[in-house]
Amino acid sequence: MIMSKSAIKEQAIAWYAKLQSDQAEPEDWESFTLWLEESHEHGDAYDALELSLDSLPEDIMSEPEVSIAANENRRGFLWGVTGIGIAALFAAAFFMPNFGGQGTYNIQEFATTIGEQTQVTLADGTKVDLNTNSRLVFAMNKTERIVTLSKGEALFDIAQDSSRSFRVEALDTQIWDVGTLFEVDVSDGDLSVAVIEGLVDVIPENAEDQKKRLTPGQMAERKAGEQNVTVSSADIDVIASWTEGVLSFDEAPLPEIIAELNRYFETPFVIANSALNQETFSGVLNLGSQEELTQTLEKFLPITALKQDGKINLTPRL
After folding, report:
1. Which residues pair with 153 in a beta bridge?
2. In the 8-state DSSP scheme, what is residue 77?
3. I need a labelling partner for 7 at 20 to 30 A (CA). Which of 126, 272, 286, 308 fits?
């Protein structure tokens, strides 16, 4: 099976973290060696991680949660990273491979848990609304601003700065801002980009010919495992309704609604009878309380909801 560069990067990070652990066994090193031998891309990815960590600014590496260690039995000299610093360093050093030669980067990391939403301000003044279960890393130097959105959904209100370009990287795709308010959604390997104001260029990695320029009210989508980017119209009023604590639907099938709702709650909704797959819903659902939301579904759809065994089963109303 051919793996994407992002998947290989994630494997390299997983190996790095595992081998840094005090619990690493000889068998782990043997398995790691086999992984390296599977493809030259594996070794290249791991080497790139080490080199990128080595090039991180001193002020990043001197944080209390970051320590430096070397082990001659490992593949070169490795930086030992502990505590909460590991995610930020990996993302900053590895998921943004173009760092270096442009001066010191100011790096920030933000994340939300399931059901959590927040608004953050990046170092350049850009406002970002982060949706449930999302994670991004921001890096800025004198000439460029880069966001890596590794999962989840974010709405960007870009601060104007003609001296620094702004782009978002997600799922082997670059989204270049041309003065904009836009949303990026990374979910189950799929990517969508919707524009509310201004212009955005969407460019798959190594596929400049697939570049798409979006205008307000347009959406670009790239499905998991596909290179093509498709463009369609989008309802501006619906694009970022989640920032107001609601979700808007227009004749949406129930399975689509349930998949979206399950991003916000620890207790999942489950369609327990396939007969409900044909049901559709138009309207607004409030995300404040799962209990109240469940009551709304029961009120406007022919369903009965029963919470049991850590889930909410939906069946046809008798």
Report:
1. 185
2. -
3. 126
Place of tokens 């953050």: 120
Alpha helices, H only, 119-169: none
Beta-carbon contacts of 242 under 8 Å, excluding residues fewer than 6 positions away, are 117, 131, 153, 287
Which tokens sit at 68? 């430096």
User: Which domains does the chain show, CATH number per domain?
Assistant: 1-94 (no CATH), 101-237 (2.60.120.1440), 245-316 (3.55.50.30)
Give the single-character DSSP code of 2: P
Helix, strand, coil tally for the chain in percent (to 5): 30, 35, 35
> Along the 318 residues of the chain, how does pLDDT read in single tens digits?
566 776 787 788 778 777 766 677 778 777 888 888 888 888 777 777 766 555 444 444 444 333 323 333 333 333 333 333 444 445 444 444 444 445 577 888 899 999 999 999 999 999 999 999 999 999 998 899 999 999 999 999 999 888 889 999 998 899 998 768 999 999 888 999 999 998 999 998 877 778 899 999 999 999 888 878 999 999 888 888 999 999 999 899 999 999 999 999 999 999 999 999 999 999 999 998 999 999 999 999 999 999 999 999 999 998
Q: How many CB atoms lie under 10 A from the CB of residue 53? A: 21
